[in-house]
Request: fold
Amino acid sequence: MQRVKIIFVVIFIASCARSVEPTVENINKIFTSKDFTFEFNSHTGDKKSLSFRNDYLVYKSDKPTYRREINYDEVLLINDFIQKIVNHHSKILDPETSSHYIIKNTAYKVVIIPDQEDYYFDALLKTLKLDKVK
Reply:
């Protein structure tokens, strides 16, 4: 019985994503999986996410989940957006009290706390035509 508990603990620990620093190298490790989530957590507690599975984008918010194909220009737009928030990452701000982004897959997790306003994520959603998803 003790061995079974130890095996479950080892499996649980191995299945948790490892937190890594928000560097281009670490984010690229996540992107190469082609199965990752880009999540926005507002300081007010609201959460919205864009998940990518092969060539599909899945948008989750307080509205019903929306799924569609993603095109190359949208991939470039999202990559550019992520690069900009990484460039504005603050080591001083706390994710408990500040809006932040999480990029994760099953192996890695990066928390980015940009020193910028929340409306930039809303602008990204609008550009991707996800702001009016019902």
The helical segments are 2-15, 24-31, 72-87, 119-127. Strands lie at 18-20, 35-41, 47-53, 56-60, 66-69, 100-104, 108-112.
